[in-house]
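Q: I have 156 residues here and want to know how they pack in 3D. Can you give me a structure?
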Amino acid sequence: MTDDIHKSPSPKEISDLLQQKFPGKVEITRTEERRVYAKVDRGAVFDVCTYIHDNLTFEHATSIMGNDRVDRMEVIYHLSNYFNGVMIELTAELPAGDLHVGSVAGIWGGANWHERETYELFGITFDGHPKLKRLLTPDTYEFYPFRKSYKLRGQE
């Protein structure tokens, strides 16, 4: 397999290329007409995203968000290719006691804000982020309001 540039890869081509390039690090869970769903090993997120950007022409990180699964967290990446309208949804699982994953802000500049918001709301740390700090809540705020363990005042 070569690292050729694919301007408008189909979901099948994306699936095949990712599994060939990252065996054991990427698991394609399903594909649809213009969508690819995959789980990615959190240690491979930066390398997989670099490949998706540089070789599969996904030029936009449409969204990056957290998801609290109580016993673990997830970071979900929606990546878009504007040539063919295909979107990749990558999900990286993080163990509850180690909420770290590599930043992709160096690949897609707009990811900077998505990662900061995810950090602020879920407490997920994006290693290598250029300015990982809170956006809306005070720096002294000790809580992460989108975690399921977060209780509003007066709730029991």
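Q: Anything worth noting?
A: The first helix runs from residue 11 to 21. The mean pLDDT is 93.
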